[in-house]
Amino acid sequence: MQRFSDISIRRKLTLIIMATSGAALLLAGASFLVYESVAFPQSVAQNLSSLAVVIGNNSAAAIVFDDENAAIETLAALRSTPNIVSGYIYRKDRTVFAGYARGGRMTPLQCPAQLDGYRVVDNHVEVCRPIVFRGEMLGTIGLKSDLREWQARLWNYGQIVFAILALSLVVAFGVSAVLQGIVSTPLLSLARLARNVSNERDYSVRASKTSQDEIGVLVDGFNDMLGQIQQHLKRVTALRDVNLAVTATLDLRDVLNILLDKVDLFLSYSVATIGLLNKQTRLLEPVACRNLDEKEWRAEEWKGGCGSPNEVLKAKEPLLIPNCQTDPRIRDPEFYRGNGLVSYLGVPLIFKDEILGVLSFYTKKEYEFHNDQIEFLSTLAGQAAIAINNSRLYEEMTELAADLSKSNKVKDEFLSVMSHELRTPLNVVMGYVAMIKDGLYGSISPEQQEALEKVMSKARDQLTMITGILHATQIEAERVGAEMQPFSLRDFLDDLRSSYEVRLEKDLAIHWSHSRDLPAITTDREKLKHILQNLINNAIKFTEKGSVEVSARVVAAGEPGAARLPLADASREHNAAPFGTGTDNRLCWVEFTVADTGIGIPESALPNIFDKFHQADSSETRVYGGVGLGLYIVKQYAALLGGSVTVKSRPGKGSTFTVMIPYGTPEPEA
């Protein structure tokens, strides 16, 4: 069932008029029936009382002479009144003297002690009155009348009231159908207009005003609201257009020209100029204008930090001058008179509390900028300030990027040349040391032999560092590629193992763990060798005693290890797979592990362990040498081969580096 609040206002008004009319008529009819229900029994009682007095007076003699028959004949006169049900005459001692009952059924009345009233019992009215003769009470007479006439009258009255009510509702419906249009027609018209505005987004339409009453006030308010929405929409559209235009490019000159073009479309009656603050001189510099002679503007308006825009710059808030030709604050009114400029509004260009310049508006006739216009233009200036700031940042970043690119190029060339120039004499030194050790220049003592071994060891360390710098430089210059070739993984590990069979100067053992039926793989052999050698050399360097274990195994596609992600606990494991290739389930993988029982890596160093020039101990009192490029190169080479490298470590317990290298579908070795 539709709620009353949801039906149309036309039906509401009709129902309200009909309900009001019906309620009024119903109340009037009900009041009349209530009055009849109270007044009629009183009227019957009054008539019965008069009749009882007459009959009592006529029966006084019969009571005095104790003539019962005479009293019965007197009561028999009640037959002429059909509403009288019964009548009784009582002696003074309240015994029945004579009686009358319609239909012959005698039922004496119970007269109360008070005889001056009446009572209604079972749709009957009972009246008792005293019989007095010569001042002496001889007895009592009681009469009883039914209310059939009253009930019939109420029924007739009810039918009349219902008929009048029905007729009145019909008339009220007809009248309301005409009268409600006076109220509902303009309201429905206003509702249709609001719906059309909502659907078509046309805020230029206006409602017609037909009266000066409350509906007329509503129409005026609706039209004012449409005007405000239309004005606000124009401003929002202008802000959007300006924002889209100035953010479409980062070139400062283009940003300023686009901004002035859009402002000119929105404020076609004005002249617009932009001055930007020079960070060195702290003075405004004219950069762009519209609808004004730019040469004269640049020459006159900005002299020595004077002029209206400079006042805005100092105050850092909008400045409004209604008439620049007569205002005493203007130092050069001739400029305004010569160009026909009258009113001025300057708005500062502020970005994060830093003033960047001033956006100025000049009108050809005296014009009063309202607060909402100033607020809108300030918002426009805020967007322009963001675009100008972005353009300046872009220019600065472009210059910095060019300088940085030039610096990197010089640095790379320097490192490349220096690495080459350092390697050449170092190789010569190592060659002569080797010849002296081998006795080509004569025999040497054991002490000399030991000294030459130290020289050779340090030279190798120096050569390793130079080679690392050279490799890192080549990686950053993107001059490193992968030469994929198939080779036997088993032979590769055997060759690698043979290079570590020399006796170490530490209480340290190297264990190798891998299957003899490893497959042939296709990858860059030299870079894989460099990765493993770097990890093994690090393990040896940072382990004074204990063991280093090198293992390799095949992880087939789909196995948990093939798609293993690093543990979430950064203090235990760190991932270095910048391209995410270490989790590709479509490939098969070879897992290389280098585990040691050395000093381990502190928790704080784990997140940056694969960064360039980073070492776990970078203090001046560090024990272990190196420049921090080994793990950086390992990470880059692993990524170049489509793999990843991770590390687990605990200080004092050792470290475990795991390298995952993809090799495609396994091919059995012949």
Strand and helix map with partners:
Layout (H helix, E strand, L loop, with lengths): L8 H50 L1 H5 L3 H9 L7 E8 L4 E6 L16 E4 L2 E10 L2 E11 L1 H53 L13 H34 L4 H15 L3 E8 L6 E7 L3 H7 L7 H8 L3 E3 L11 H6 L5 E8 L2 E10 L7 H67 L8 H31 L8 E4 H10 L8 E8 L5 E4 L1 H17 L3 E11 L17 E4 L12 E8 L33 H11 L3 E7 L3 E9 L8
Parallel strand pairs: 12-14
Antiparallel strand pairs: 1-2, 1-5, 3-4, 4-5, 6-7, 6-10, 8-9, 9-10, 11-13, 14-16, 15-17, 16-18, 17-18
Helix pairs in contact: 1-4, 5-6, 5-10, 6-10, 10-11, 11-14, 13-14
Q: Gist?
A:
This protein is α+β, with helices and mostly antiparallel strands.
Commentary on this structure:
The protein has 670 residues and is α+β, with helices and mostly antiparallel strands. The chain has three domains: 25-159, PAS domain (Beta-Lactamase); 236-400, Beta-Lactamase (2-Layer Sandwich), CATH 3.30.450.40; 481-662, Heat Shock Protein 90 (2-Layer Sandwich), CATH 3.30.565. Helix content is 48%, strand content 19%. The protein contains 14 helices and 18 strands. It has helices at residues 9-58, 60-64, 68-76, 148-200, 214-247, 252-266, 294-300, 308-315, 333-338, 371-437, 446-476, 489-498, 525-541, 630-640; strands at 84-91, 96-101, 118-121, 124-133, 136-146, 270-277, 284-290, 319-321, 344-351, 354-363, 485-488, 507-514, 520-523, 545-555, 573-576, 589-596, 644-650, 654-662. The strands form four sheets. A six-stranded mixed β-sheet has the order 12-14-16-18-17-15, with helices on one face. Strands 2-1-5-4-3 form a five-stranded antiparallel β-sheet. Helix 1 (9-58) runs antiparallel to helix 4 (148-200), helix 5 runs parallel beside helix 10 and helix 11 (446-476) packs across helix 14 (630-640). The two termini are 87 Å apart.
